[in-house]
Amino acid sequence: MSSLYKPFSVSDGPCKDATWRGGCKSQQHPAAMSSPLPQPLQPPSASLGALAGAFTPVHSMCAGKRRFAAGAAAAPGGRKITHPGKAILAGGIAGGIEICITFPTEYVKTQLQLDERANPPRYRGIGDCVKLTVQDHGLRGLYRGLSSLLYGSIPKSAIRFGTFELLSNPMRDDTGRLDNTRSLLCGLGAGIAEAVLVVCPMETLKVKLIHDQCSLHPRYRGFFHGVREIVRDQGVRGTYQGLTATLLKQGSNQAIRFYVMNLLRNWYKGDDPTREMHPLVTATFGATAGAASVFGNTPLDVVKTRMQGLEAHRYKNTLDCAFQILKNEGPQAFYKGTVPRLGRVCLDVAIVFVLYEEVVKLLNRVWQTD
């Protein structure tokens, strides 16, 4: 075909979404990405001239719309990243909603882990634990200790996602894709940060309040009274019991979760990093990541819980705690509470990742960042 007709040939003609003088509506023509629009050519016939006049794609309109839509989440150079400020806000909102939904399973898990074999076991299983708690304290008994976890869950989730985005943004490639190994390291860093700043003191208070409820004569009348009594008796150091176990648990927790989530996300998007993930897909991937973290570090969670309970003085340190559990109760004790923890964590991670992604999308519409 003559070069005179090339701009309107089958192979190089206007993009498939062009309409009569309406321009592209979905996908920009490849030629517009690399070169300016060609100057109008005068075809040799009137019919061809009419055809040329009819198909006049306005590529710049499409490009402008796409740039406006992506501008809130794209950094210079076209990388799709999330500003750490948005990550902190979105993470805090997601964490607060999630803990209100899943706390009863956390309560049951903690009760079963504190029900040591050294004493006559009080509960025969998950159902028995729920039944006795409701009998003794009503439905509100399943939410004892919620306040301490709620006060900690919001900043914990905010710090987790904020730290992860802060560490991962410089490591992403030009398309915003994060390598799986780097996601593991960023998740580890996020877990350590949340453990030191929030998780250890808040989890210690939560375990002590729940453990106190098990005694015949509870000392603490509520969260703030419990905090005041614990700090008065043991000092601030009393809220950092089990720090080593908490660092190990939270670091491995988030490393596993972010690694699995990033692995599945990269697999799902394939060669198209801009492909959107439906919330149900995000929830499925999040639940899978949560399950992987449960089976990966439940022994550390058991040790952490013992080190933060009211009987923590029985153990010299984290290693001594693990050794005594193994010696007195056997290796199966390291997986006590796995089933209720599995249910809670899978639901927890699924909810948090879905809420986080949706809140970030909302923030991108109202908060434009460079």
From TrEMBL:
GO BP terms, alphabetized: mitochondrial citrate transmembrane transport; neuromuscular junction development
Topology in the lipid bilayer: Multi-pass membrane protein
Keyword field: Antiport, Membrane, Mitochondrion, Mitochondrion inner membrane, Repeat, Transmembrane, Transmembrane helix, Transport
Solcar repeat residue intervals: 82-170, 181-267, 277-362
Keyword presence, Membrane: yes
Stretches for region Disordered: 19-43
The name this protein goes by in its record: Tricarboxylate transport protein, mitochondrial-like
Species, as recorded: Silurus meridionalis
